[in-house]
Amino acid sequence: MVGLQHDLDHTPVEVEASALISLGPLQHALDQVRSSRRLGRVVALSSASTRFKTHSPDVAERSLIAGLIEIENELSALCAQRGIVLSLLKPTMIYGSSDNQNVHRIARLGSRLRWLPYSGTGMRQPVHADDLAQVVIECLKRGEMAAGSWLLGGGETLNYPDMLRRIAAASGQTPRAVRVPAFLLKPILRLAHAFGRMRDIRPVMIDRQKIDLVVDNQPAREHLGWNPRAFRP
Length: 233
Hints:
Layout: E1 19-22, H1 26-35, E2 41-45, H2 49-52, H3 59-82, E3 85-91, E4 94-95, H4 101-112, E5 115-118, E6 123-124, E7 127-128, H5 129-142, E8 148-152, E9 158-159, H6 160-170, E10 176-179, H7 182-194, H8 203-208, H9 218-224
Helix pairs in contact: 1-3
C-alpha cells in the first residue's frame, strides 16, 4: 500500500478515484470534485449549524455560515450536473475525537472550578465520531438510496446543564452546574479575554445555550440506518 500526503489547502490532490469521502473542510470536497473527472460517488461532511446560526448576531459567525451554505449549494449543483451521487452529512455537535474542543473546553473548566456556570437550558444532541464513521460506510453501501442532505443528531437529547455534568463526570470531576444570567456571564468572559484567557469562547455562545440545537433524525434512521448511541463522553 502506498501512502499519499498532500496539503489540500493549496490544491486538490492529483489522483483519480470513483468515490470521495470528505471529512474535512467542505471547500476541499468542492475543489476535489471540480478537479476530478471519474468521480461517481461523494460522501461529504458539513454541519447542522446551517440550521442554527444563519441569523447569528455575531457577524463573523454569520458570514462563516453563509459561506458554508454557498459551498453546499455549489457542491450539490456540480454533483447533479455531473451525475455524481452526493451524500451530504450534517451532524450536530461532534464528540469522541482526541482533539474535540467542545468537550475538552468544558472538561478543562470543570477541572479548575468547583462549579460550572451556564445561562440556558437549551437541548443538545451530541454525535459520536464513530457513529459518523459508520454512517459513511452505510452511505457507500446504499449508493443512490443515500443521495441527499441528511441531518444527524445523536441518540440522546439532553439539556445544556446535563451535558455539562455528563462531561465533568466522564473526567472524574463533580463540580456543581450553577445557572448564571447571560448579562453577568458576558462581563466575566470579557474580563477573561482581557487577561488572554478563554479566547475561543465568544459571547454569542452564551446566548446560544438557551436555544435548542436539535434536528429530526427520522429520515436518516429510515434511509441510512442511522442508529446513534446515547451521549457518553
